[in-house]
Amino acid sequence: MPYQNKYLELLSYEYPTIQMVASELINLNAIMNLPKGTEIFITDIHGEYDAFNHYLKNASGIIQEKIELNFPELSIKEKNRLAFFIYYPTDMLNKYKLKLSKDDFVELLHKILYDMIKLAKEIVTKYTKSKVRKSLPEEFSYVIQELIYESSSHEDKEKYYQAIIEAIFLTKRESKFILQMSRFIRKLAIDQLHIIGDIFDRGPKPHLIMEKLINMNNVDIQWGNHDIAFLGAASGSRVMVANVIRIAARYNNLDCFEDGYGINLIPLARLAEKYYKHDDCHEFQPRGFNNDYFKSEDLSFIARIHKAISVIQFKLEAALIARKPGFNLEDRLLLDKIDYNNYTVEVEGKKYSLLDHNFPTINPKKPYQLNKDELEVINHLTQLFLHNEMLQKHARYLLQKGSMYLKYNNNLLFRGYSFN
Predict the structure, then answer these.
(1) pLDDT beyond 60 at 418
(2) What is the Cβ-side half-sphere exposure of residue 257, based on CA atoms within 13 angstroms?
(3) Backbone angles phi and psi of 202, in degrees to 5
(4) CA dihedral sign of residues 9, 14, 17, 21
(5) Is the whole-model pTM more than 0.90?
(6) Which residue, of 5, 39, 54, 348, has the fewest CB within 10 Å?
(7) Which residues contact 172 (CB under 8 A, 6 or more apart)?
């Protein structure tokens, strides 16, 4: 058939001979019969970089599991020590260098190195040699290949195997080698990392999480609502800019924008001080953490910012809802349902007393109209989001690597939600 000829013609550009086609078919058939690589799934990271980083380093507990299976003779203490040499090699090398004598330290490194090689041999069994080679550190590529693919139990190879190990120590490369071996093990312990939504909001370091993901090759991302809000803000949506800043204030986490992305929130702070200086903003106090660690004046300052940006968001939402009636979000419009004399709000025909009575930036006749100061602040913040180099880089990466859903290994991956 004509369409078959077309496909064969395209195939011939990459595989011009029958021998090349046959070789590739053999290769693919062999790969299909390898054990599936380990996939790990993580969701709701919410800017918690330290927890996320440890999760990656221990491969969701997979490395510890491999140690349990392959080193039954080790004590619990020795197993944990080996695990932490893989997770945090620099810290462990520094710790034991200070703790042990020189001879004992060298003896420990010998043991750790042998154990790492044994563990690496187990982990690489799921992969082709080609894939393993691509994961090897350039500096020790040849050495590691020889150690993981040669057996030390055969008499004719034992001296060769031992000579490689001793050469590492004679050239004073043992610490560097352990560092590279640990990275190699961690890299191959995870064949594919699936991020199932919500990298952003609440936690302090989403920018570090994004930088780590950008440097990984085996990642896919299914967007959560917080990721989509971030993309909206990065795209210049004023209501989404207000939303992501409001959530950061809600969790006392404005540093993620100021320190993480270098976005100046001083204009917003000035607006909050101007209109809410004598307002305790009790209902807008940051929540979700232990307030005892923070001074009351600091919490009040954050609460004022939280209230200021919340009112801006409520106003901006009205224009969006009016523009998109198909969303059926009219029930979210409440500023025009407030009785500003009696401080009540009417919802579905019932009146409720308001807990907060201070709305200095709301004009009761035009409750959804931004005043001059609010308009200047949200326009300024939106421009900062649009022209922030790091933030835009992260948004582009999310768009390139992310999606609403993904079919992978015959599994449908998507971010699910529950509504109570």
Answers:
(1) no
(2) 27
(3) 80, -60
(4) negative
(5) no
(6) 348
(7) none
